[in-house]
Amino acid sequence: MKSEVRIDPMLQRKQLSKEQAYQKAKHYCAYQERSHTEVREKLYSFGIRKQEVEELISQLIEENCLNEERFAIRFAGGKFRMKQWGRIKIRYELKQKRVGEYCIRKALEAIDEEAYRQTIAKLAERKWKAFNDEQSKIAKMARTTEYLLHKGYESILIKQAIEVLKREEDFRKENIGQ
């Protein structure tokens, strides 16, 4: 009795021709900005060989379908606006996507400094006010700092935002206490 080996149809992927892979990659890039690494991985998933993958990547770059600087700027702007991530977290995520240092620097420079400072102030104030007044100021500072560090903001900016909140709280307590 022979045992029959069955291959899951989901694992059997039809290998695409170079032209088919190119068309799919072009559509993949048109849908949203992609990093070179994302497109490279997608092409490998189509069963394309390394040499052809590199040729297709070059072709997509030449036709401006794939632009890593444009990707980095959009990625950074989107994560900042939608998730209120700080520059440290954005830099880390771009490095995870193997984006070059030049593109990362350009992306971080594209974030509006005034909006960045307003966002950190707003996040700090929201977190600070989430604690009741009976909690110690040290506990509020620690929890707010931890939250903002997790969001990827710079220590110096966090310290400045918390100093403003402490002064406002002290001022409020002095004026209410009179």
Kindly report the average pLDDT value.
89
| H-E string | HHHHHHHHH
Helix content: over 70%
Distance between the termini: 94 Å
What's the oligomerization state? single chain
Q: Which spans have pLDDT < 50 for at least 5 consecutive residues?
A: 7-11
State the helix count.
9
Q: Structural class given helices, strands, pairing?
A: mainly alpha
Shape: elongated
Strand content: under 5%
Explain what the structure shows:
It is a single chain. This protein has nine helices and no strands. It is mainly alpha-helical and 178 residues long. About 3% of the residues have low confidence.
List keywords for this structure.
Arc Repressor Mutant, subunit A, 3 domains, 9 helices, 71% helix, 0% strand
SSE topology:
Layout: H1 18-31, H2 36-45, H3 50-62, H4 68-83, H5 87-96, H6 101-109, H7 113-129, H8 137-151, H9 155-177
Helix pairs in contact: 2-3, 4-5, 4-6, 5-6, 7-8, 7-9, 8-9
